[in-house]
Amino acid sequence: MATWFLRRLNNHGVMQKLSMAFSGKSTTAIGRRYFVSMEVGQKLDPYSCDDDYRENIDHQNQDLDFPGGKIPLTSQMKFISEASEKRLPCYRVLNDDGSLISNSIHDQLGEEVAVNMYSAMVTLKTMDTYLYEAQRQGRISFYMTTFGEEAINIASAAALSPHDFVLPQYREAGVLLWRGFTVQECTNQCFGNKDDKGKGRQMPVHYGSNKHNVITISSPLATQISQAAGVAYSLKMDKTGACAVAYTGEGATSEGDFHAGLNFAAVLEAPVIFLCRNNGWAISTPVHEQFRSDGIVSKGLGYGIRSIRVDGNDVIAVYNAVRAARTMAISEERPILVEAMTYRVGHHSTSDDSTKYRPTNEIEYWKTARCPINLFRKHIQRNGWWSDVQESELYTHVKNQVLEAIKTAEGMEKPALTELFSDVYEKMTPNLQEQERCIRDAIHKYPKDYPTDFQV
């Protein structure tokens, strides 16, 4: 049995050295500095081979200079364990009653920012509610909600700069709302009318906005992750002082783009935040059927990326973690991986019925006991920043705003047929010209199969 050493900081910030026995059944983290301050230099650092570790390696001073750096040698055959006995911790600031956890490390939100964040979360949930119902009524073709993930949307968006580039997946409508993309613009996109910035060529909830530095959502899973590494590298080369932020669900981490994107970002030292919403379910696939690792945060180590796990239902924790991640990404020119632990309360989309593969009492628990909106409301009420009167006024205002937006979007005419082919290339290519002719011929031949107000 070998003896290994662990260095850690105690509650008073003093470094301690602890000895630990190793029998080959598990491994212990070596040389980790824990998240003890909001100062960038004291954030979670990668594992390092420190002096205590070297004392227990045979053949001292016989490091071999392999490609990539020197590696200490040992005559003991030891395998790295596939998993630690303890899961990596989750950063949290708020108790379930809305009070602050004692001795929590965070920057407190001011009243104005906190109230604006709460209002945005309510707006997002209300918009989701009515647009989801609109799809059920056959008024739009498809929809995806952010129920249960409102804190990740709004808190992360508030922690970023408007100059940062956002590459969303498809559950980040709140990020656009925070940046100034209106409820009416979201609704126009879902109805695909002539005011839709995407000209009706995208599925509903596939938003994008050049004005707000939000790159248009793409249906294929995980494509935005590797793209974000490239965007971030460009921002770095141009010395913009901004970063890229790629949002993704834990299901997308099983795609090759995730691994390629993280590796490229690490090697290029690109200022990018990979923000993963680990909501437990990739459509109907639970996390334990996707990977054996300790969630997503543990994957950062393998690519040499600084990482943190955060409670995705805690607004203040998400805000502080993303804010700190942004500072490190830009000032140190490095990628950061943030795993936000949450739960997808709603169905995956309007094409899904999640009650077929998960218990309703589980959904109800997260919908009520762990609701991020309710949790944050308790916090701002405890601070005297919110009242029942304000709550009633907000819900009435937002409801009317959303219903009016739906009415306006639904009554607006659709884009002309020519918009289907414009903006693809500077000049329309022969194959697109042929496709346009074929569609025009079909409309003239079968006019009853098309809406009477369809513009050719």
TrEMBL record:
One of the GO BP terms on file: branched-chain amino acid catabolic process
Catalytic EC class: oxidoreductase
Cofactor(s) essential for the protein: thiamine diphosphate
Chief place of localization: mitochondrion
EC number: 1.2.4.4
Assembly and binders: Heterotetramer of alpha and beta chains.
Protein name: 3-methyl-2-oxobutanoate dehydrogenase (2-methylpropanoyl-transferring)
UniProt source species: Solanum lycopersicum (Tomato)
